[in-house]
Amino acid sequence: MKLLKAITVLTTALGCASAFIIKDAKISFKDETREAIELGQLDETFIKGEYQPLLIKEIDEVVSFKFKLDLSKSKSKEIPQQLSLLVGIADKDLEVPIVAKVKDSSKNNKVKLVSFKVDLQTLPKSVLHYALANDDVPITASLIVANDKKQLARKETNLYFPVFHLQFTDLAKKTIVDTFEEPLRYGKQEELAHTFPQPPTTADPTLSLLFAGAVVMVNMFLYMYWINFSAISFENFPSGKDFIPFLGFFGSIISCEIVFALYYFGTGIFETVNCLAIVAPVGLILGSKFLRNYTQKI
């Protein structure tokens, strides 16, 4: 069985080689007393992520992952388009990308020094919640080194594989405060009901009274002004056939004022428009006839 597996891996490596070479990979911790872990050279056959997870004692722990990226065999000879470390819980689709810091090697310009820092305090609360609540759900860090297919030579492949797992100790689970709350949308909710208020059918009574009073006062002052300055003389009122246009002219003005007053007292807009459609043409026709035929001072 082991021989068959070895032959399969060897055949895969010969038939399809990676476009990138990762050397001198190393995992270190914020706690300097903790020994760093040397991973050596990594490729598509790396299965370190399947081994025992790294134990985390404090929430302020920072895990560093560094390696040398050899681009000598890559077609593009440039930094890959995707160079990131996915940290989270893949089974629950909770992963965040950690951006790499890339520096040029002083010895070889085709070799890049790549480093990642996983600060546990900056991880989403949802990731920490599931890692603290379940012993069998570790935080996984997966490496992505990839280019577009157009930038890959024939038989070259990209890299994507888990590098290490992080798991909190029992003591850390007791001291770390879990403040995450699952969104309510994941559970059953009560049906939301909202009753929209009915739109007002009448104008405000106070506003209506003020408007009606203003209309009456303006008309009174207007007529008083006409009488005082002899603009109206009751001795020269139209009579006979001229009295009908005169009466229609002033009657239409008064009717328009009444229509507007009724609107502010609660008449609907459509009823108001219908009334104006009747009153306005009558006033326009009779008023024009009155003003054309009667040229004397009233």
Automatic annotation (TrEMBL):
Q: Domain Ribophorin II C-terminal: where?
A: 196-296
**What is the protein named?**
Similar to Saccharomyces cerevisiae YMR149W SWP1 Delta subunit of the oligosaccharyl transferase glycoprotein complex
Pull one GO CC term from this UniProt entry.
oligosaccharyltransferase complex
Compartments it resides in: Endoplasmic reticulum membrane
Q: Tell me what topology the record assigns in the membrane.
A: Multi-pass membrane protein
One GO biological process this protein is involved in is:
protein N-linked glycosylation
Against PROSITE patterns, the record matches this protein to: PROKAR_LIPOPROTEIN (PS51257)
Signal peptide positions on this chain: 1-19
Keyword Transmembrane appears in the UniProt entry: yes
Q: Which GO terms describe its molecular function?
A: transferase activity
Q: Its domain of life? A: Eukaryota
Which keywords are on file for this protein?
A: Endoplasmic reticulum, Membrane, Signal, Transferase, Transmembrane, Transmembrane helix
Entry's transmembrane regions: 207-226, 246-265, 271-291
Q: Which organism is it from?
A: Maudiozyma saulgeensis
